[in-house]
Amino acid sequence: MSSVLTVRGGVPLAGRVAVRGAKNLVPKAMVAALLGSEPSILRNVPEIKDVEVVTSLLQIHGVTVVKDPATGDLTLDPKGAKTAPSTLIDAHAGDSRIPILFCGPLIHAIGEAFIPDLGGCKIGDRPIDYHLAVLRQFGAVVEKRPGGIHISAPKGLQGAKISLPYPSVGATEQVLLTATRAEGITELAGAATEPEIVDLIAVLQKMGAIISVQTDRTIRIEGVKELSGYTHRALADRNEAASWASAALVTRGDIYVEGATQRDMMTFLNTFRKVGGGMDIDDDGIRFYHPGGKLRPLVLETDVHPGFMTDWQQPLVVALTQAEGVSIVHETVYENRFGFTDALIRMGANIQVHRECLGSIPCRFGQRNFLHSAVISGPSQLVGQDIDVPDLRGGFSHLIAALAATGTSRVTGIDVINRGYERFTDKLAGLGADFDLSTSTTGRKLNS
Ligand code: EPZ
Prior knowledge:
This protein is of the alpha+beta class. The protein contains 13 helices and 24 strands. The radius of gyration is 22 Å and the shape is globular.
């Protein structure tokens, strides 16, 4: 079943949305429950596809996952952990990258893991070489098998002195989830320190882990024999919050994002203010609004935390198409994260992408034929078009472009947006967007 959104643009989004647990923490905290000898409870869990995928992957590995119908809280009991047939794992993994993080916990729980070849948004090659390298450093045996990789640790997992070539979020999570019950001490240099990483460390500390984050981006883990369960409320999704903030700018609207957390969005908030966005921050969330007048262009480079998050870039680029002047965005985390601009150009945006590094941050993609810098001239009048959504964040950006455009846009492939944005069509309706949602099987209008 695929859904089609018919959007009639030009309506400022106004009202209130709530963001819940972060897509980039909740699935990892669910996997962490595998490490415990008792059940865990995870709170503030969003109803998104990535949570469904991890729920089913845990269930086929014998973990019971019970959802509280009233709150959505999950109770995860790893007592019955067992191996699962690789065909079943593959069938449930979808295009998620989370399965790679099952390695350490499954080896600790049942001595082995099978990880299917991974998916994930097409924003670059998405390799897992760092993951496999660190697993080998813990003493794991990694074997390529048809359709995926088999990992085991006949001699158990020992702590290691690891240095990442790049502060990879996933590889840092791989180390955290493997080292906490490995024998001895692990030292991880060049680690990622995103708020979602710190929240995962909080989860593991609640389970009994001993983890410290040092000032030079080194994380030190003292392995312990056993971990208990945890009760944890996931931090809010700062990426969804930033997406709604950009939507307010692009549609000249006014959106209160309940749950938006200033502490985790400081760099975004500075940028939002520099572009000319208005904001009111309170204890429960942040009001983002277009104050009228002109938006200002800027020079922006994405980076690892505490820099400007790569996941914030796409929605903000749509806002930059409405700024008065020339903006430059240098994407330094992924090599191919401007594909979504093709549709914006068809809608009338003036964007050129370049293979040169247009910025000062040292970047792995310079002169390697990756179109990873963009020059955006505005303001451009966006006109509705037929759009097929390429990936999660690019897809949300297409939606807000369609909402700001004059005329009607037919947006297909929107199901990928469900991976990371909870009930986004309900939220759009609540903000006054003018659209119809139909599904290809029935062609029925679900919403108007
Ligand atoms: C996580 O992806 C997030 N996804 C991404 O969010 C986010 O953009 C990214 O971190 C950076 O913050 C989840 O948490 C599910 P990385 P991850 O490992 O862990 C290279 C979204 O829209 N690399 O930090 O996969 C990689 O190619 C998604 O919510 C290797 O070369 O990102 C990239 O260039 C998109 N080898 C860079 O590191 C490896 O083995 C950063 O990737 C692993 C990564």
